[in-house]
Inverse folding.
C-alpha cells in the first residue's frame, strides 16, 4: 500500500510539475516582453516602473498602474484608449495600436507589479445562458444615468462624455465594469456579481440584435433628436401644408384671376 501510494504521489508529481515549470518560464518571458514594450510605449507618461508621473502643478500626467491589473490594461489598450495620443480631457476609443499578444504581455507586466483584476474569461455560452430580463433591470439601475436608456451614450460635465455601448465586445464590456475607466465607477464583484455582469452584457447584446419595431430610432438619444425631428419635419410640413392650402384655395386663384 505504502509503496503504491509513494509511487502514485511521485508519478503525479512528475506528471504535473513540468507543466507548472514551463508556465512559470512563460510568465517570466511574458513579463519581460511586456516590460520592454512598456518602456517604449507607456513609460513617458506612466513612469519607468509604472509608478505614475505627477506634473509640477500636481496634476497626474499618467497615473500609477500598480494594482490596476491586467483587466485594466486589456481594456485600455484593447479599445485603443492607450497609449494616449496626447494628454487631454478624455482618452478616446480608437484603433488599437498593439496586437493581442502584446496586450497580454503588457497585462502580465502590470499584473506582476501588484495584484489587480485579471482579464475575465467570458464565452458565448455565458451570454446565451444569462438572464436578459434581470440584465435589463441591472442596466437601467446602474448604467442609464450616464450611458442613456438605450446605451447610446451621453454628455457628462467638464467636456467629458460616456460613449455609446453599441459594438463593444463582451470582454471589453466586462472589463469596463470591473475597472471603471476614467469617470465611470468601478462595479466590483461585491456590487455586481460576475453573473450580474454577464446578465447586463446579454441584455446589451440582445438590444443590439433587436430590430426597432417602433419605427425610426433617431439614434435613440432621447428628446434632443426627437424634438429636432418634431420641429423640422413635423412643424415644417404643417407650414408647407398651410402655404399649399392658401395658395391653391378658390379665393387665392380668384384674386389672381381678378388682377389679370
Ligand atoms: C500621453 C500619455 C500616456 C501614454 C503614452 C500612455 N498613457 Fe495610460 N494613461 C494616461 C492617462 C492620463 C491616464 C488616466 C486617464 C484617466 O483616468 O483620465 C491613463 C490611464 C491608463 C490606465 C487606466 C488606469 C486605471 O486606473 O484604470 C491604464 C491601464 C493605462 N493607462 C495603461 C497604459 C499602457 C499599457 C500604455 C502603453 C501602451 C499607456 N497607458 C500609455 C496617459 C498615458
Ligand atoms: C458616472 C457615469 C457612468 C456610469 C454610471 C457608468 N458608466 Fe460606463 N463609462 C462612463 C464613462 C465616462 C466612460 C468613458 C471612459 C473612457 O473613455 O475611458 C465609460 C465607458 C464605458 C465602456 C467602454 C465603452 C467603449 O467604447 O469602449 C463600457 C463598456 C461601459 N462604460 C459600460 C458601463 C456599464 C455596463 C455600466 C453599468 C453597470 C456603466 N458603464 C456605468 C461613465 C459611466
Amino acid at each position: 500500500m505504502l509503496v503504491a501510494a509513494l509511487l502514485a504521489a511521485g508519478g503525479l508529481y512528475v506528471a504535473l510539475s513540468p507543466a507548472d515549470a514551463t508556465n512559470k518560464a512563460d510568465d517570466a518571458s511574458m513579463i519581460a516582453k511586456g516590460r520592454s514594450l512598456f518602456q517604449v510605449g507607456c513609460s513617458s507618461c506612466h513612469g519607468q516602473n509604472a509608478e505614475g508621473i505627477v506634473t509640477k502643478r500636481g496634476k497626474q500626467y499618467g497615473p500609477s498602474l500598480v494594482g490596476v491589473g491586467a483587466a485594466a490594461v486589456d481594456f485600455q489598450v484593447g479599445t485603443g484608449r492607450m497609449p494616449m495620443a496626447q494628454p487631454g480631457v478624455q482618452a478616446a476609443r480608437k484603433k488599437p495600436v498593439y496586437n493581442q499578444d502584446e496586450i497580454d504581455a503588457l497585462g502580465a507586466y502590470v499584473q506582476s507589479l501588484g495584484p489587480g483584476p485579471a482579464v475575465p474569461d467570458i464565452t458565448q455560452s455565458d451570454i446565451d445562458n444569462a438572464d436578459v430580463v434581470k440584465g435589463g433591470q441591472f442596466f437601467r439601475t446602474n448604467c442609464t444615468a450616464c450611458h442613456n436608456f438605450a446605451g447610446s451614450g451621453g454628455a457628462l460635465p467638464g467636456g467629458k462624455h460616456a460613449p455609446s455601448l453599441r459594438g463593444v465586445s463582451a470582454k471589453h464590456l466586462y472589463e469596463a465594469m470591473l475597472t471603471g475607466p476614467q469617470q465611470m465607477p468601478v462595479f466590483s464583484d461585491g456590487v455586481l456579481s460576475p453573473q450580474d455582469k454577464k446578465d447586463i452584457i446579454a441584455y446589451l447584446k440582445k438590444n443590439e440584435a433587436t430590430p426597432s419595431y417602433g419605427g425610426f430610432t433617431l439614434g435613440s438619444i432621447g428628446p434632443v433628436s426627437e424634438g429636432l425631428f418634431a420641429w423640422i419635419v413635423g412643424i415644417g410640413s404643417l407650414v408647407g401644408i398651410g402655404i399649399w392650402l392658401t395658395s391653391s384655395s378658390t379665393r387665392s386663384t380668384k384674386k389672381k384671376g381678378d388682377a389679370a
